[in-house]
Amino acid sequence: MGKKKAFIRDKFDRPLKDLRISVIDKCNFRCTYCMPAEIFGEGYRFLNEDQLLSFDEIIRVATKFAKLGTEKIRLTGGEPLLRQNLDQLVKQLLQIEGIEDIALTTNGVFLPKRAKRLKDAGLKRVNISLDAIDDDVFKHINGRGVTAAPVLKGIQAAITAGLEVKVNMVVKKGLNESQILPMARHFKDKGVILRFIEFMDVGNHNGWNMDAVITKKDIVDQIDTELPLVPVEQNYFGEVASRYQYKDGVGEIGVISSVTDSFCGSCTRVRLSADGKIFTCLFAGSGHDLRVLLRDGITDEQLEEKLISIWSNRKDRYSDERAEGKVTKREKIEMSYIGG
Ligand code: SAM
Ligand code: SF4
Ligand code: SF4
Fold first, then answer.
1. Which of 39, 86, 105, 125 to mutate to test the pocket of ligand 1 (most atoms within 8 A of CB)?
2. CA-267 nearest atom, ligand 3
3. Angle between helices 216-226 and 180-187 (to 10 degrees)
4. Ligand nearest 338 Cα, by number?
């Protein structure tokens, strides 16, 4: 018999189901909408080794979350594959009772070298970000002059290793809307679900405004004119992407419409930053520092109480408030720090 789970609920009765762990804040890319090179330049102070949670510390926190209801874990960053031996972390996380699924979000560049070890460690799924198939557009977006080829190789390596692959494309007006159809055409018959993400107002440096959002409707209409689509049912409650299949039966896309069709009501996600802070929303301004408590010798019981208290007091519904026109300007955490 396993240990019993204590399902906890927040102020809006949302359970705690998913844990997103950012393992590092550094990245090999400088995507213009996430880590603009002019801000994340030479002088930018990233976290040092000591400030990052160790794998043991991550496991300790994840174990407690699992006891409180968490079933799924996603590893992210920065670029999570810049953290050495990530496969070891995957292996350890999978041993936690109650954890059913581990996934990874990555820009894909390091997958040719790492995909097999990750799969062998028990990783099931990987979301690979690729915002354009055209080299000039992609080079500009990633801020490092990298062509699409290394990412496509990463996608292929993940497929060959037996991982389930989804490709994520953030769409921003004036940057890459020209790529919606070329990306759809490219991935349609590759056995890979392509998911379009509306550009969000995360962080403080990406110059977001509503005019820069290419909406779910724009995206679906654009694809549908050339490659007709039919909407399909959600796979499970709380799934964030609206799903569409191509009418000819070959291929599927998803659209994550956090701006024009927000889904806070079913948001069961908690986020752990690379330096051990808990954030109850992607748009939060501050987190709850666990690292200091872990390093000061907090007991298991106290840790559990702390997590219960954080989640039970959760009232976040930023995207719904944005849709209602109620958000005011405030400092937010950066996407590259918390990992999406
Ligand atoms: N480096 C990894 C990657 O790019 O997949 C993992 C971290 S990255 C922050 C996670 C995801 O957030 C990526 O798919 C990225 O495109 C997305 N993202 C970053 N900034 C965003 C924004 N302002 N709006 C929507 N998605 C964003
Ligand atoms: Fe790096 Fe991912 Fe942000 Fe691009 S989106 S800068 S790959 S963390
Ligand atoms: Fe969840 Fe916050 Fe996003 Fe709403 S805005 S879906 S509460 S992370």
1. 105
2. 1
3. 60
4. 1
CA distance 106 to 104: 6
For residue 327, tell me if it sits in a domain. yes
Per residue in 289-329, pLDDT (tens digit) is: 999 999 999 999 999 999 999 999 999 998 899 888 887 77
Question: What DSSP letter does each residue of 86-114 carry, written as one string?
Answer: HHHHHHHHHTSTT--EEEEEE-STTHHHH
Q: Give residue 64's domain range.
A: 18-338
Position 12 in a domain? no
CATH of the domain at 158: 3.20.20.70
Domain-located, residue 8: no
| Binding-site annotation, residues | 20, 27, 31, 33-34, 74, 78, 105, 129, 166, 200, 264, 267, 269-271, 281
| Number of domains comprising the chain | 1
- Whether residue 4 lies inside any domain: the answer is no
